Amino acid sequence: MAVDRREEAFEAFFLQHYERVVAIAYKVLGDRDAAEDVAQEVFLSFHATVDPAVAWAPGWLWAAAAHRALNAVRGSRRRRDRELRVLPGGAQETPEDLAVAAEQHAAVRAALGRLPGRQAEILVLRAAGLSYAEIAAAVQLKPTSIGTLLCRAEHALRKELDHVLASH
Known about the structure:
single chain; about 170 residues; mainly alpha; 8 helices
C-alpha cells in the first residue's frame, strides 16, 4: 500500500511540474526534444532519491533541470548541430534574420556554459519564469540574496558574451 501511495504522489507531482522542468531545460538548450530528455533524466533521478511530499522537492527539481541542461550545453558534441538549426519564427523573417538569431542564441548558450554553475543556474531559472522565492528554494538560498546574485550573474553573462562575440 505504501508503495502505491508513493507512486500516486510521484505521478501527481510529475504532472504538476513536468512542463516547468521542460521549460527550464528548453531555456538553456533551445531544443524541445533535448529539453524533454533532460526532464526525463531529472524525474528519474528525483523518483529514486526524493520524496515528492517534502517542501523542498520543487526547488530540487528546478535546480536539477537547470544543472543537467547546463551540463548538456557544456559537454555536448552535438552543440554545433543545435546552433545551426533554424529557430521557430514568424513567416516574415528572412533566412538572414533566422541565421542571425541562431547565432545570437548560440553565443548566449556558449557564454552560459562558461559561467560558474550557480550563476548560470540562477540565470536559467529566472529566464524560465521562476520568482525570486522559487529560485531561492531551488538553489537553497535566502530570497533576499537572489536579486544581488542575479545582478552579478547578469554582469558576468554580459562579460562572457562580449568575450564570445569578440572571438568570432
